[in-house]
Amino acid sequence: MPQNQELRLPQVTNHRLLLIADYQRPYAWGHKQLSDLWEDLDLLGPAGRHYAGTLVVRDLVDSGGAPIESETDDNTILRHSEVVDGQQRLTTCLLLLDRVRRRLQGLADGGLEDAQPVADSLRRTYGFAQIGKADRPRLQLGSELNDYWVDVIIGDHQYAGPPLLAGHERLRQAAAFFDDKLEGLGQDVAPETHLARLRELQRRVTAGLGFLVYEVQDTAEVGVIFETLNERGRQLSDLEKTKNYLLYLARGIQDDRSQQLADEINKAWSAIFTSLAGQAADQDDQLLRAHWLATQNPDPRLWKRIDSIKARFDRSRYISGETRLVPTTQAHQDQQQAWDDLFTDVRGYVRSLRECAFFLAEMFDSEAAFTAFAEDRARARQRSAALRRSGVVALYRPLLFAARLRHPTNGQLYADLVDLCERYTARVFVIEQRRANAGETRLLRLAYELFHGEPATYILGEIAAVLWRYAPDDRIRATLEAVDENWYWRRGHKYFLYEYELSLMQPGEQVPSFTAFTEAAREQRTTEHILPQHPRPEDTCWSDAFTDDERAVMVHALGNLTLTLDNSAYANKCFDDKRGAPLQPGQLPTACYAQAPLHQERELAQYTDWTPETIRARQVQLTNFALARWYVATPAAPGAQDIGPLEPEGSEEDQAVQ
What we know:
two-stranded antiparallel ribbon, disordered C terminus, 11 strands, single chain, alpha/beta
């Protein structure tokens, strides 16, 4: 099996001549990767250590299986080793050290004698080994790049040749990038200070960077390593990347709090993963987003996933300015205070994220205990179930997180908020069919304000104001009483009719679960068209009651729909046959509205016939139900001034995603 260990750069290069084979990708690092490496070194500090990545090496053997080795002029045995993976970062580190060597040589040529031994040591250790009085590069690139690498990049020759290829150009740009950074280390300081900074940079590269080195013996093991390292399996989620980044920050604290914070992060993530177990695959990243919008920044355009978290917990905030390669007074001068801030900031973030993972689990749990609430636990469960049935939950997660983080024991507030969110969905999305993000900007801002201390009564009033602007009573009535609205193709029609069924129930009665009407295997059979979609031509009962135009317009109207457990029993029958009669003693049950298990079906049996006027009358009845069930009082003040103009009506974009 491959052997692995964490090594510093000298341990990688001291006893090897390294080769990058031609089949490897040419040098490819650009400005971003170079900048990241420089930032890592700048923030490393005098005693810091940083994991720089993985190296996979394979010692080369001759045809007889013996190791290929060379002996230097100072009697050191160097193994010939192929760099199987990690060649980009290894090449860059050696390139940087050679640019440091050049700067040191310049200081030595300028009369600073202490610089010469360091420059010579860098050349021998990381540039060239002397074998048979000839210079051999410590690292040899693929044949396409090697001459340029040896002669120009780590050698001292000027390039004079044909236009550079892409790999050559990237090497040149990397050298120029580091030359510019090293120039900054010496700007406006004495040569002795410049030397000290260069030596500190050298130390950070050679002693601060750690490489996880895998030593493999044959090509079969190389395949195993690639399978493990090259992310051919599942990509890390942002939640997992966040954990790794926070653990990295915790490692930077140089006292016992480092382990304490790391333990707390690990325990928090264990609890988070437990809370999210069994939920949709994207819930972990949705948790991060909703928590961020509620607690950090409510503008969804600025949410950049792991990059936002790294920016919020920027390493530079927790490093004393005195430890930078170029000391600055713009950062913490007191490293202890920087560590205090790091411990406090990360701990607070981790704890609130862990709590929100639990809150998220309770949102989807029909048996959620809500033990933190001092009151209204049952109502919180009931209103949460209704919100889930509505089909829109994600929009309100930041609000619900903010309420529970800020008011953890206030069950009444939470139940009131969930109830208002469900009313928002019913009116704005299900009935008015606004686009799925209608009012999102204002709702997210309100979540942020709630978390940061705005009174809950103000927040609830503002949500109602947004709702009222999108879906006032007069619009609700006009939409619901319009018989030319196609409700059948709205997924929300089952939710609407299910809530209507609940309103007809008597205390103690049971109703099938909502999923009985929405699960894929039954979905097409649980909505009944009273006026059939396709009446049989020989059934004049329907053609006598409806003209062709009326049937085409009204067949999918809300007033012509009812929930049922199985519409196949009704088929295309005439209304009299569908209506039937109540079950009498001694009779066998038949499939008809009068004997159906649902209240809304039995209610249909009270009609003597089914006509356009009947549909209109039933639609008025359903309208009155909706205005009562999802009642929201007219706001006392206009409010919600920053939600922007309403979307144009009638466009495809207007249709809410249910």
